[in-house]
Structures are given as structure tokens and as C-alpha cells.
Amino acid sequence: MFDPITMKLHVDPLIMSALREDVTSEDVTSNCVMPGPKKGTVDLIAKEDGVICGLQVFERVFTLLDPATKVEFLVSDGDEVKNGMLMARVTGDIRVLLSGERTALNYLQRMSGIATYTHESAKLLEGTNTWLLDTRKTTPNNRIFEKYAVRVGGGHNHRYNLTDGVLLKDNHIGAAGSVENAIRMAKAYAPFVRKIEIEVESLDQVREAVLAGADIIMLDNMDHETMKEAMQIIDGRAEVEVSGNVTKEKIAALTDLGVNYISSGALTHSAPILDISLKHLHAV
User: Any idea which residues carry the catalytic annotation?
Assistant: First the structure.
């Protein structure tokens, strides 16, 4: 759940921007059938099985339009829901319910889809000491929602943005001239409390990263046997992350490596939405 300060400073402006995208001057359709205020209620219903996530954001869409709107939740973020389940009832001005419907559902469906996909992926790592991580491959201006959904689904967040930590990728290494130079320059510049992570693509780079004192070594797009060799070279002298086209279907095959982290951009860029609807709107 988002704390009040995060909600006000970072979440509310994004929701308001999404609402303005959907209503540039007026909701002409709703105003046709509901020219004045009238109290109504509508049901939030799951249309497929999954993990629900984003209920606070769903509610906020309506309360930003009208603080008098009330939402009665029957589930909580992280709950597994079933097709046909009644999850909440929203009561308020019918014009608000109609105008906020699509924006509220867009957030809830997207976040629930990510939570569901992450939950299914994280289950494959049960019984291991490997953490499932997300990446920065998120929808622009929706990172705060999508990374929250990963946590609800049982995953963990990698760095939130470029300010969070040092991750030297192939182009950084190219800019520095070598793995050793990149790590040396990072150690000289970054605050001492920051870990230095570096992405490597060959066993020679693995050896160079270990000798240069990297804190975390990311094995990027390596085949399984090469990663096994890399683990032997590292031999506990650095934490190890595996990355590169990691999907839910590939995670189980990585569990024997004993790495600290597996990062998957698919958690946020490839998760399908969870089908959810607002139904049975009527005046009360």
C-alpha cells in the first residue's frame, strides 16, 4: 500500500494526468444520460482467476473526482481471486462512477496482471535462496504502479531508477574502455555505501569483474553451461544475478545455478492484464 505522502506527491498527479487524458472537456456520453447528480452503485467483478493488485489506486481514481465516493472492498491486494468473484462495491454520484470507470479499471487490470504473472514466476523459485527481481523495463510514467505490483505478486524490486544504484552495462563498459576501468571509476565516484554491479557477457569479463572487486556480477544472456562455469570462477566472491530474456517459462531451468538473483523484464513488459469489470450500475 502507498503511504499518504507517496500517494499525494507521486501517485495523485499521475492519476489526475490519466483522468485528464480521458476527459479533456467533458464526458459527453455520461452527461447525455445523467445530466444531474444522482447516487448509484456498481459492482467490481473478477472475470478470470488471478492475484488482485491496485485496489488503493482504483479507489483513488473515484475519490479524486469526488471525495464523497465510497468503496467497500471484499478483497485485499495480494489475494487470489476467482472468475465471477465480487471484489468491491462502489457507491457515489453516477456521473463519477461512469467517468472514472475506464481509468480505474486500466490501473487495476494492469497492476493485477503484473502481480499474477509475478506470483506464477515466483512460485518457481520456492525452496531456493534466489530472489526474483524486476527491471526498469516499465511503462513510462507507470513505474511506481508496476513495481508495486511486482512486490504484491511476491517478487522484489531492482533499482527504481538511475539514481538508485550503480549498474555498469555493456555501453558503460564501452565508454570506460574495459570492465576493470568501469569498476575502478565507479568505486572512485559513487558513494561508498553503494554496491557496484556490472553486466558481463563472457567468462573473460567474469574474471576481470572478480579481480576488479565488483560487488554484484550480472550474467547476461549466457547459456546454461557458461553460467555454471561463471559460478565456479566467482566462487562466492561476489553476488550473482542472471538476466537476459528471462520469462516465466525459463525460470525453472535456472534454479540449479544457485545464483542470488534472477531479473526478468517480462514481469512488467510482458504480463497480460487481468480481466476485471464494473457491472450492474444502478441508482440507489
Answer: 137
The amino acid present at 274, given as its one-letter code, is L
Helices 179-189 and 203-212: crossing angle in degrees, nearest 10, is 30
* Per-residue cell: 217: 556480477
Closest among 65, 68, 88, 84 to 76, alpha carbons compared:
88
pTM of the model: 0.96
> 156-167: per-residue pLDDT in tens?
999 999 999 999
Which residue, chain included where needed, has cell 503511504? Answer: 3
| 54/149 Cα distance (integer angstroms) | 7
In this structure, what C-alpha cell is assigned to residue 5?
505522502
Instruction: Fill in the amino acid letter for 237.
Output: R
> CA-CA distance, 150 to 270, in Å (whole number)?
13
pLDDT, tens only, 100-140: 999 999 999 999 999 999 999 999 999 999 999 999 999 99
Query: To 10 degrees, the CA torsion angle through 82, 269, 15, 13?
Result: 150
